[in-house]
Each structure stands twice: as C-alpha cells, then as structure tokens.
Design brief:
By secondary structure, the protein is α/β, with parallel strands linked by helices. It has a single domain, classed as 3-Layer(aba) Sandwich (Rossmann fold), CATH 3.40.50. Helices cover about 45% and strands about 10% of the residues. It starts with a helix and ends with a helix.
C-alpha cells in the first residue's frame, strides 16, 4: 500500500513538474488558443465598468461569434455586455465570473449551447490555456469536477505545447482566432468578411441523457440574485441539424421550461437559421446571420425582458 502511494505521489509530482516546465518554456502570447482567450479581459472590463441597467449575455462562442452588441444597444436603449467566449470553459467558470458583479435591475440572459444540457464533458483543454494566460484563473477551476476534467485533458494540452516547442511554429497567422478578433464591445468580428459555410455536419449531443446539473446551477444563481431579471434562450443553431433533431430540441425546451427558475424567452426554433447564415460550426454565425440574430434578440429584450 505504501509503495503504491509512493508511486502515485511520484507520478503526480513528475507530471506537475512537466506541466510547469512547458508553461515556462513554451508560453506564447501569439498562440491562437492562448491569445484568443485574452478576449476575456475585455469582457471582464466591460462587465466591471458599464453601469446598470444593462443586459448581460452569458454563454459560449455562439455569443462571441453571433452578437452585434452595438446593434442591440441601438434597438433596445440598453447597455449590452457580451460575456460569451468558449463553451469549453464550462458554466461554473461563467457563473464565478459574474459573482459579485450582477446588480439590481440587471437583465441576465443565458444562451448556452445545447451541450450544457446533456451528459457530456464540456471542460476541455481551454481552461489550461486560461491558467497559462494568467495563473490567477486557477480560482475559477477549483472544484473537484473541474480539476478532474482538466487532468483528463492534460495529455492533449501537452501534445499541443510539445508540437509548438519542437516546431517553433506557433500558428500566429490564424486569421480568426487571435487576440484582436474582438471589437470594442467584445464581439468577434475577425470572421465577418470570410465566405465560409459548415458542410455535412451532424452535431449530435442529443442521443445522450439530459444533464440537469447546469440547470440546477442556474437555479442557484437565480436564488442568489433576486434583484436581477434572469432569462434563458436557445443558441443560434444550424437549420439542417435542427431538422434532424427537432424532436429532441423540443423535448429539451419543455424540460427547461419545467425545471428552470429562469423565464424562457422565444421558442425552440427562434434562433434557427439557414446553413448559409453560419460560418465554421453549428453555432457560429456569419455576418448576415449575426445581424438577423441580433435583431431578433433585441425584439425579445424589448417585449419580454424590460
């Protein structure tokens, strides 16, 4: 038993030193995975500095790539804070980011990707790049589940770092995913002039069991912020995939309406758009899709949230 403990301890220590070594040897601010996540600082700054009343949008990259903040502000007369960046950060991170920042009369709208509602590990190696970016980000990933998932994805993260270190090629020519991908509002705009549409995608998380853990986390958030108005909407979604999984999406819609303490605004297909309105995934809208989605969301805010 003692030998086993010694082996586990030694292996853990060696792994930790290996990870720290690559943090130090291959830190690279031009790495697209690394630098794109710096958009978080811009979003946090807006969250801290913009006065109430305001609308805070919480979710993953469907918001980063699919919202025109200025347009929504113009149509609603409200300040908009787009906190969306990457779904793989996980909801606990997003909620911790809002902790102590949500004020009376704030409107919070959760637009979570469908993955959040199914039994699938969302927390990939993105948090490892967040921690590499700033060690203070460890405070956002400090519970048992977060740490377990980070450990599971550490081999993939190390593979990326080793490849960068050996090749000395940091992919800093990526035209989309980089630090300057964002405008002053925290919206991704680097993709807007590219003509690209997802092809032959069947994004199927719908065959998994429902996971109500994140609904419970949002319910706790609602109870902790009785002074705020909190809502849920579905994300933008590729029409071809919606047609395949419409039954499952509708079932999820009904589940959220029953289980969630937020008010669901819109319908199950409110933000389903033709495939040629998307950029590089089932969630990322292109220029015309982004505009239409923002117009529809502004209508919902004016009619349902004020």
């Amino acid at each position: 038993m003692l030998k086993l403990f010694f082996k586990i301890t030694t292996l853990s220590l060696a792994s930790s030193l290996f990870i720290i070594g690559f943090f130090l040897l291959s830190r690279d601010n031009d790495n697209p995975q690394h630098s794109f996540l710096k958009g978080r600082f811009l979003k946090q700054e807006r969250l801290s500095n913009i006065e109430t009343p305001r609308v805070i949008l919480c979710g993953g990259s469907n918001l980063a790539f699919g919202i025109d903040t200025k347009l929504i502000q113009t149509k609603t007369g409200l300040e908009i804070v787009n906190m969306g960046l990457s779904r793989s950060l996980g909801l606990p991170y997003m909620l911790k980011e809002l902790k102590g920042k949500v004020k009376a009369n704030d409107i919070v709208i959760f637009a979570l990707e469908f993955d959040y509602y199914y039994k699938k590990q969302l927390l990939g190696f993105t948090p490892l790049f967040m921690i590499e970016n700033n060690l203070n980000n460890l405070e956002y990933f400090n519970n048992k589940d977060d740490l377990t998932r980070i450990i599971n994805f550490t081999p993939r993260y190390l593979q990326i770092k080793i490849n960068q270190f050996l090749s000395k090629s940091n992919n800093n020519a990526n035209p989309i995913y980089h630090e300057n991908a964002f405008n002053e509002y925290g919206d991704v705009i680097s993709h807007l002039e590219f003509d690209k549409t997802p092809k032959n995608i069947n994004y199927n998380v719908f065959n998994l069991d429902h996971n109500t853990t994140n609904i419970a986390l949002i319910n706790n958030f609602v109870e902790e912020h009785p002074e705020a108005k909190i809502f849920t909407v579905f994300p933008s979604f590729l029409e071809s995939n919606f047609k395949i999984h419409q039954k499952e999406v509708e079932a999820l819609y009904q589940l959220i309406k029953i289980e969630s303490k937020t008010k669901f605004i819109g319908k199950s297909d409110s933000f389903v758009f033709p495939d040629n309105y998307f950029f590089d995934s089932v969630y990322h809208l292109n220029k015309k899709g982004r505009k239409l989605r923002s117009e529809r969301l502004a209508i919902l805010i004016n009619s349902k949230c004020k």
